[in-house]
Specification:
Blueprint lengths: L1 E6 L7 E6 L7 E10 L4 H6 L18 E8 L11 E4 L2 E2 L5 H4 L10 E2 L11 E5 L3 E3 L6 H20 L7 E5 L3 H12 L3 E5 L3 H10 L3 E3 L6 H8 L4 E6 L4 H10 E9 L12 H5 L5 E4 L8 H12 L1 H5 L2 E5 L3 H12 L5 E4 L2
Helix pairs in contact: 3-4, 3-9, 6-7
Amino acid sequence: MKVKGVHLPGDKKAHVKEWEIEEPKDDEVLVEIKAAALCRSDMSIYYGVPLIPGFPPGTYITGHEPSGVISKVGPCVRNFKEGDRVAVICFVGCGHCRYCRAGEPNLCDTAKCLGFTTHGGDAEYLVVPERTCLPIPDEMSYALGAVSTDAIGNLYSTMKYMSVSGDDFVAVAGVGPMGLSAVLCALAMGATVVAFDPMENRLKKAKELGAHYVANPHKVDPEEFIRNISKEGVTKAIDCSAENEAINYLLNSTRKHGIVSQIGEPGAASVTINPSEQLIHKKLTYVGSWYFALPEWDDITRFIIEKIGVERAESIISHRYPLEEAAADEAFKLFDRRETYKVVFTP
């Protein structure tokens, strides 16, 4: 069947073209896309250097944060039916390895990723195995379902792993969509939050969401700023910036026995840290965070509905666009210039 979908040839331009996709077979479902969110990872294809390598830019329809309604099911589908509202995770694992069985297809050695190594959700329709679909509660919109598959879901899982609570003082570096999700989740878990970003509009948004302290690291010394609030430093920190400078001031500002979680991906860029002083001598934990485990989905949606609030969670979406050529070009340009928060296509 023919569908409209976003095409990124890798030259910092975005197009909408017609693609040919197959009908669902076996355990696959056809999802009519209602919302698909942009992610900073998408920009690697936009620039022509895909973060997940294997195929040239433009090989597949982009988009790894989609949601929609199931419009057709394959003959072996057992858990979903036509008309079900679903969010779609971005990883298609083998379904049989130890990681897939544990609900972490992102760790599967043969996993495909929507938009990078198989067709993604910036389109009218998407065909995926039913195991990649998660039910969206009635209280949540399709747009919120889409952003919850990556940004909010990832940050909830990260905070849970770090055991964030009302006893914690949490620092967040980089308050784009991921960082704003970190602010939302940490606050909902009762923590005191300080947010850092060089862009004033993002600091303003973090403050609107409830961050107790915000600061521009280009105007103040982040380490001194934190020491003035708490002499010992923060208990936990999350880097969503992928910047060498930010990673280091978080490591330096996190107290003994603290935890620093790395979410921002530097890609091929090198990051220099001092393990002796920043990790070993403080017995500090430095952990990588990548997506959430599928069994967490019910907890994630309940947390959004009951703790964050659906309207507040959806407020990290700043722009919505139809699936049209001019709209797609504008969406990616504004997102590239960091003039947006979360951007969502609504086919």
